[in-house]
Amino acid sequence: MSEFVQFCFSGLTVGAIYASVALGFTLIYNASGVINFSQGEFVVIGGMTTAVLIASGVPIWLAAPIAIIAAVIAGMTLYKLAIEPARGAPLVTLIIITIGASIFLRGLMQTVFDKQIHRYEGFSGEQSIAIFGAALLPQSIWILGGSLVVFVLLVWFLSRTKAGNAIRATSSDILAAKLAGINTNSTMMLAFALSAATGALAGVLATPVTFTSYDAGVLMALKGFAAMMLGGVGSPAGALIGGILIGLIEAFTAGYISSDYKDAAAFLVIFLVLFFMPGGLFGMVRVERV
Amino acid sequence: MSPVLRAFLIISALLLLAPLLFPSVYYYRIGVLVLINTLSVTGMVVLLGYVGLVSLGHAGFFAIGAYATAVLPAYGIPPILTILVGAIGAALVAAFIGKPILRLKGHYLAIATLGFGMLVWMVLSKEAWLTGGPDGMVVESIDVKAPFELLGIKIKTAIAWYWICAVAVVIGIVLATNLANSPAGRAMRAVHESDVAAASLGIDVARTKLTAFIISAVYASVAGSLLALFNRYVTPDTADFLHSIEIMTMTVLGGASSVYGALIGALILTSLPQMLTVFAEYENMMFGAIMILTMVLMRQGLAPAIAQLFSRGRK
Question: Quick check: A278 and B104 CB within 8 A?
Fold first, then answer.
């Protein structure tokens, strides 16, 4: 029993992180139809910057916002320099560009910071709380709470604000959105900025539990993508639930099957979803417009 | 002149003349690495250039070839044959994973192949009883000088490797060019333009994509086997994500639309890190920047740009 609860806790914790990554994917996908392969790097920028600042004596309440701002700048620069100039390019071109951005950011972090593994102390200390004989880290509560808040804010933003509606309009038909007077360029820039912030926040919250290093982004992106696919591409609720499910699947794989292959769980999920329900839990199968 | 004959003549001439520029045996070693990369990249040209699909896991197929050559001799299969066994293995794996993934659009293929590459890397690092784990394993060496000695030629090992790989590359490029000008290749280009339009012309889209995916996997696997035999050592890094990215960047920089691009991309990105330490130090940033810049400024890559330069010069 206590073992089972323990796996649930660790699954929910990492699942909440994957959910945030998936939400970041969803935001950019909804606005521009691009899957941003450098989404994982935003998470690492958040974690690494915070870790390095804290190590040099900056308090967490100051380090975290700086890290998030750094990621937002990276996201906006990515849009301005690489995505916008390639507008209207085939999908393959955009995929290659965001992969290039991912590798570039990875190299940049390796150069600016280092190749070490980083972490810092949890926000509310390291003393775990015992529940049903299992240990829950206070940082896990921060991570779960943070992801939920981000999710609620995003849904509210997309459905209730003018800028959010502009993002949805742009995704549904870019030409119509332009005709309706929406500045689609700044709308997409906004989506990239928000997505980067979401990813970086996940990194700031997660690093005390998951640790981070310059090359951690790829695996993060792979799992976030699996989460988004499982939930249904484009759906924020799907991203949240998909993330939690991937986290749980991974934790139980590590616990009951083999911790060596826990990272393979996300990959298997991608395969099973492709085979059996290409639309995911909350998504629809898209029809190609010719 | 048919495109196949032209490719044969141009590539053969280039590879025959290149050693005139090599000041020492060390350059033959770099030459071998360029040629092995050219082989993987030619496979990627088939996938990305002909059909327009992205794979981020080609290092996985490369590693299948490399480890087939490293592991199988212990089970009584002669090293030369392991190249073939590896290629068949890679083709089967590609067929198995390609079938579900290729039904869907570019993103899914990219991410699923990324996962595939990582899975291969994971297996190679964790199953130490078979693969030697993260430290890798020694590969039984083969006597590459033997065929040359039969002809009465005495050369150094690295030079022998250069000529063997040159032959492999010429064969690989001729086959790929031949494919481009065959009905299967035309079907691939039709699919590249539009899935729907190709299907309406009676082309089996899924089958065409799968064929290209399998062919590109075989190229990568053969390249992997050659590298294993040449280095006489393999590590799980052959399956690393960054290696997939290297193959991808070479393809994109050279230009995915032609086999000449494969040679150009492999040449530049293999030799630069060897010659410039700055490049090696900032390798990740360089590869990333090259991918972005090529896609934004010169989407067709270098090969068409160079070809244009020549045709302008002729006028």
Answer: yes
Q: Over 50: is that where the pLDDT of B253 sits?
A: yes
- The CATH number of the domain where A14 resides is what? 1.10.3470
Q: Is A116 exposed, middle or buried (0-12, 13-18, 19+ CB in 10 A)?
A: exposed
Does residue B189 contact residue B48 with C-beta atoms inside 8 Å?
A: no
Domain span holding position B116: 3-240
Chain A interface disruption, residue of B47, B285, B290, most A CBs within 10 A: B285
Nearest residue, CB atoms, A275 vs list B100, B110, B122: B100
What CA–CA distance (Å, rounded) separates B170 from B7? Answer: 9
SS3 assignment, position A283: coil
| B65 neighbors B223 (Cβ within 8 angstroms) | yes
* Angle ∠(A218,A28,A244) on CA atoms, nearest 5: 60
Contact A103 B291 (CB under 8 A): yes
pLDDT at A290: 47
Q: Positive or negative, the Cα torsion across A40, A238, A197, A178? A: positive
Whether the CB-CB separation of A169 and A162 falls below 8 Å is answered with no
Nearest to B196 among A218, A229, A290 (CB): A290
Closest to A207 (Cα-Cα) out of A263, A139, A150: A139
The per-residue pLDDT for A135 is 86
For Cα atoms A135, A240, A51, give the angle at the middle one, nearest 5 degrees: 60
Find, in chain A, the residue whose alpha carbon is nearest to that of B118.
Answer: A264
Whether residue A173 lies inside any domain: the answer is yes
Tell me, yes or no, whether A284 lies in a domain: no
- The CA distance from B86 to B66, in Å, is 8
In a domain, A18, yes or no: yes
Classified as helix, coil or strand, B233 is strand
pLDDT reading at A226 higher than 60: yes
CA distance B73 to A158: 60
Domain count, chain B: 1
Does residue A147 contact residue A198 with C-beta atoms inside 8 Å?
Answer: no
Contact between A57 and A242 (Cβ < 8 Å)? no
At A285, is the pLDDT very low, low, confident or very high (cuts 50, 70, 90)?
low
pLDDT higher than threshold 60 for residue B217 = yes
Interface of A with B in 212-271 (CB under 8 A): 218-219, 222, 225-226, 229, 260-261, 263-264, 266-267, 270-271
In contact, A112 and A41? CB cutoff 8 Å: no
Domain residues for A125? 2-276
ipTM of the complex: 0.88
Listed in sequence order, the residues at least 6 apart from B52 whose beta carbon sits closer than 8 Å to its beta carbon are A90, A92, B106, B191, B192
B 167-226 residues with CB below 8 A of A? 194-197
